[in-house]
Amino acid sequence: MTTLPDSCNPFPENVDQVFTHCRMATMAKGNYGIVENAALAVSGKKISWIGPMDALPETPGTKKVTDCRNQWILPGFVDCHTHLIWAGSRANEFEMRLAGASYADIAKAGGGIFSTVTATRAADEGTLFDLASRRMAHFLTQGITTVEIKSGYGLDLDTELKMLAVADRLQQTCPQNVQATFLGAHALPPEFSDRADDYIQEIIKVMLPAVKDQGIATAVDAFCETIAFSREQTRQVFEKAIDLGFDVKLHAEQLSDSSGTALAAEMGALSCDHLEYLSTNGAEKMAEHGTVAVLLPGAFYYLKETKVPPVDVFRRLRIPMAVATDLNPGSSPVHSMIPVLNMACLLFGLTCEQALAGATIHGANALGLADRKGSLEPGKDADFVIWDVASPADLCYLTGITPVKMVVIEGRTEHGSV
Amino acid sequence: MTTLPDSCNPFPENVDQVFTHCRMATMAKGNYGIVENAALAVSGKKISWIGPMDALPETPGTKKVTDCRNQWILPGFVDCHTHLIWAGSRANEFEMRLAGASYADIAKAGGGIFSTVTATRAADEGTLFDLASRRMAHFLTQGITTVEIKSGYGLDLDTELKMLAVADRLQQTCPQNVQATFLGAHALPPEFSDRADDYIQEIIKVMLPAVKDQGIATAVDAFCETIAFSREQTRQVFEKAIDLGFDVKLHAEQLSDSSGTALAAEMGALSCDHLEYLSTNGAEKMAEHGTVAVLLPGAFYYLKETKVPPVDVFRRLRIPMAVATDLNPGSSPVHSMIPVLNMACLLFGLTCEQALAGATIHGANALGLADRKGSLEPGKDADFVIWDVASPADLCYLTGITPVKMVVIEGRTEHGSV
Fold it and tell me: Which residues of A touch B391 (CB under 8 A)?
């Protein structure tokens, strides 16, 4: 795969569409991979050529030509961590937290996530699908073209499969690429109170094989934390998951240092997510094993966390940093990547370029999709967004506005116009 | 003016429109002023009746009837503090601040606001109008129906008048109500370097009379701060402004305690704005003189301020708290009230109800418009928004989505549909 526009690249034969007069932040290399006065060709679902305007051959009549009028094009956002499927509302819990209750307090009191579990169990598949579809439709307007979606509000076989069936229907019906993750080990369900090991066995012996049979998830996630599952319980889930051929990833070191990250990295996890309390040792294990750090500033912000993830350590060890919405009704009701970019800069100290790389190429890395998604390069999927901004940094700087002009996914215009 | 739906209110004769099956947060009294299963009648530009559905007379054919399908209606947002008219971009300064430069550092270095002053002076009125119109159009989609707009990026007579002329054109062409404020004392222009008293004389002798002559502003604002103008300079500007019949208001105690608030309150200011460093003595003066506290969490957030305004003191002294976007290209590029509501709750500790009252009735109070704007009550302007939310608190809880369905201003549907 070539990484930069190059007039030496021959213009391909089978071009279906040409986007002309583009300014591109390809995110394929340093300085945002900026290319100005450029054109981009699409063949079928793929980017087939990127080059300077003056290398563009005279366009025959069969090609669709879109004049981008010098607007900025960036890769579509890859949101690599969401809990997008749920029923019920948690606005009341937001008011509780304003009054001083902590996430752990609420979890221990049987509130919080369990109110979502109850509502999600009670909702039929059609209702869940309608709710989630609306969220996907909004995500499209926000320039999000790939979406990871976790189960984990069922915590029983039927509801977990129902959630993953909804994710599968979203993949069939929404324009975005959907990556489904099984998160049975999200919290201990009330039926297994004080019997966490039994629930882990249920996951290993019943849920994981059933999810595998249905072929409706590609990855397995877990929440390794004092209020959730231990390192040893996580290890057991991951061993079985890996044995069945799933990718693994982990909610790790969000509220305390449980050393889940080192374990996950050693087991070949795609990513470890949250990481506010990560130790340097944990980070070193990530670097050693090529694990992506997924930063979730929405949850940090909503939970009024004060300890930030060790961004300087990630930089020093060259650990790729992804950023994601963590969309969920409890700790991150964040329905767009734009505020996430802003919070990644202002709260975590990322540069604008690092934040944008986190929402594109490193989001794709966190999902194991970097061969197809996350940057503008010939051979990759034609997933991109045309933005009405003066510079890519505007996408990190602005609040309360999403200046999307047009969203293209696998070569099809799915939202807006130039 | 009655404050609550009351089936004893006779249904008026001259009704043009009826909105049926409403859930309303009227913001007219406690608990959001919630009224369920209600209807609202509009006569011309005014709300003429609010009452229970079963008190609604059978509707004759001449009235327009809109079935709100049990969706929530709130007063349109009153954004009582913006700097909406400017040219140029400050995204680069955002990147500078990420690297550690402070607002004061940037101001002292001649950067920051002066880059906006330079760009705004250079822009012709048509260009400024186009830029500002787009911001107003976006504000409309965010449910903002009244907008205060300050000058203050000219700092010379011609540019200050040009900005106020743009505000006047916005009032003529945009559906929102516009309140223009003269803010010549925003910063010391480079032409008056080390001659702040001379610039104050220029404001008093030249600018204020010219603004008065043209009748294009109703209020006068100033920035009382170590990096701007002293308490004594502020007093001189306010004395002249009051003498000419302007309302006054103040940017006060944002970066330090300069005791501008006590002065402004004693001089009858409508509001004092920012207030992070306000002393209890200053707050007591506000309470004594009925001054509104305008909280601007966007600037607090963008400037990484750590000292929060004394919200508990405002509560104890029953000082009305407004919240506003402070939309400006430097310290608060915040283009919607939704993130402001969220930050007011999470960063400043307001309840959801206080935040919503701040964006509606107390925003109107801060502009001296509470007789016409800011709550749903018979006799007030028919400015309201229909929201696709489960509860009013959702508007504070959500990030990255603005669930507006329809915006009505003075009885006219200006955006969306039910």
Answer: 89, 91-92
